[in-house]
Each structure stands twice: as structure tokens, then as C-alpha cells.
Sequence to fold (399 residues):
Amino acid sequence: MAEYDLISDDDFFSELSKNKKDAEKKQAQQPPKDQVGEDDLFTLPDDSHEEEFQLDLEDEHAFGGQTAGPETAEESFSPPPTPEDRAEDFSESAQDTFDMDQVTQEEESEAPPASGSPETPYLTDDYIDEKQEGINYRPILIGTISIVLLALIFFLVKMYVFPSKSGRKEKIAKATKEVTASTKKAGPTPLQLKKEKFWNSLAGNSRSALGLISGMGKADGKGIKLSSILLYDKDLLFEVFAGSRAELAKYNSTLRENFRNKKISIVASDSRPGNKSGIFGLFKVDLNQVQSASTAAAKVTNPFKTPQEGEKWLQFLAGNSGLSIKDMNFTPRKAQDVYTIYELNALLHGSKKGCLQFIDAMGNSPKNIKLHKLILNALDQRTFNPARYQMRLILYIYS
Fold:
């Protein structure tokens, strides 16, 4: 059982408080000890100290302290504080709490707001919803305009700087038409007049020579075979085969009758060796007289500008005459005065009739060409088969 009855003894706390105050009062009345000598270290404490020690022990028992002795330690419970002490302690604690809250609020008000992280509102706080910012359409608009401009520039460059082949051809054709139209309106220039005059002279000379060749080829009669015709520049020679000298003489007289305005003469005759008798007669025609008489009647309407146009022309005439072209090519030659010259070579095979028809067609379509060389001969010089003839042409195109 406890030494004090906390329920029945009402004055326990008052007596305990009174004893504590008396002890503090006695302790305050004792003089202070400034120095302690060597002799005092070994002196025993007086009765006042014993009484004081006893009061301390009582206090420890009263407030639940433990007294540690050399042998045992008994647990004791300290008496509860008085209502006056609790009120005093509560007032002091409340005052301290109020002071700390006030200091904390002042420090928070003086402290600068944190720049790094915004204050997070509590769920109970009332706040206004911020308005959502609108979408910035400026970059999208600039990008769209840039793409449209780039596409437009690409098509303009492709159209005007690097036009297609068809576009170039259309532009060239358009420019040619414009030049032709302007030329017609302005009239021919002196250079054009000079070229046209020269082209007409070439066409007249070629036409007269071709007409004479065609007539000589058709003049052979019964017993007379055309062996060959050679036109080289201004010389025209042709050779025929006759069964006898009498037949050759008759043919010579027929030529003079049919071509009275032409100067034709026989220059050589030679017998053919072998079992089959026969004789070759070689005739010459003066082309200077023929050309001077027929030049004025020729007029070139569509002159050749390129050698490819001359090739197409020969191919067209050969097709219409039933001839086959075995070889055809052209080579540029040295320019002369204001003219660009091309040499056109062609080798054709077919019948004698087809070759003479080809010659007539060339004479009837005047062109800016000079008939430099023509060789027409029978491939079979023994039988003179009319289906086996060949013709070689060398033409000069003046553009």
C-alpha cells in the first residue's frame, strides 16, 4: 500500500508545495560559497544538507521518481499537479505557442516568394479557372504560304528556264512563223534576192541536163540499146550499143533530127569483141548551149535548208518511181560566199523505165541543188536487160 492516500488526503499537494518553498527559502538564506579550501573537501556535510537531501528524496517519491540505492530501487508515483499549477503551465504554453505562430507568420510574410515552383493550392481553396490560351496559327500560315510559293517557283522555272521538247518545238515554230510573216510584210532582203537568183540558175541548169538525159535514154530504137549515160559537171556523154555500123549511123541521124537545137556529136565507136558482133557508139552533148536556153524558166519555191530535207526528197521520188535506194549519205563541204554546201550521194537500183521516170521527176521539181554527177548504166552489158539498171547521183545542196 502507498505511503500517501491520494484520495482521502486533500492537503497532500498543498503540504508538498509548502515544504518545497521552505526548502528553497532556506537555501537562498545561506551565504554563497566563493571558494572551497582543501580542508573543506574532507569535512562532512552538516545537518542542513541532510535535511535538504531528505526533502529531495521526498520530492522524488512524490512525483514518481526512483531512488537508486546501493542495494534496491523502489518505484514511486509523484502526486498530480494542483489546478493552479496546471492553469499557470497552460497559460505559459499558450503564450509561447502564440508568440511562435506570430513569428512564423511574420517570417513567411517577409520571405520572398519562390521563383522556381509555383505555390500549389489546397483542395479546399477557392480558385478561378484560368482561360486556356488560343492556338497560334501564325507558324502554320507561314509554312503553307512558303510551300505554295516554292511550288509556284518550281513550275515557273520548269516552264520558262527548262521547257519540254514539245514546248521548245512550239516556240521554234512560232518564232519561225513570226519571222516568215514579218519577212513577207517587210519584203525580201538583198541577200535573199541574191540567193533566190542563184538557186534559180542552179535549178535551170539541172533541169535542162536532166531533160536531155531523159530524151537520150528514150531515143533508142529497134536494135539500139542504152549502155550508159555520164553527166559530170558540164560534160554529158552517153553510149549506145548497135548490132552494126549501119544501125549506129541511122541512130546518129535520128538524134540530129529530134534535137536540132542541141549540139550533139559522135566522138568514138568501138566494136564489141567476142562471138556476138556489135558496135558501141559514144556521143557528146554541149551543155553550155542547152543551159543558157532554159535557165530563165526555172524557179525554186521551197529550197532545202538541211541535207536531211534533200534525203527525204530523194526517198519520195524513188518510191514513186519504183526504185530501191541501196546507199545514201551526205557530207558537209567548204562554204562558198554566203552559202553552206552539203554533198549528197545516192545509189539506186531498178528498171530502165523507173530510172528515166525518176530523172523526169527531179527535173519537174526545181530545187536549190547542183547536179554534179549522174551515172546511169546497164548492169548486164551483154544482154542489156531493161529490168536491171542502176543510177548513182552526186548532188550539191546550196543553203
The beta strands are 224-232, 235-242, 264-271, 279-286, 324-332, 341-350, 369-378, 389-398. The first strand starts at residue 224 and ends at 232.
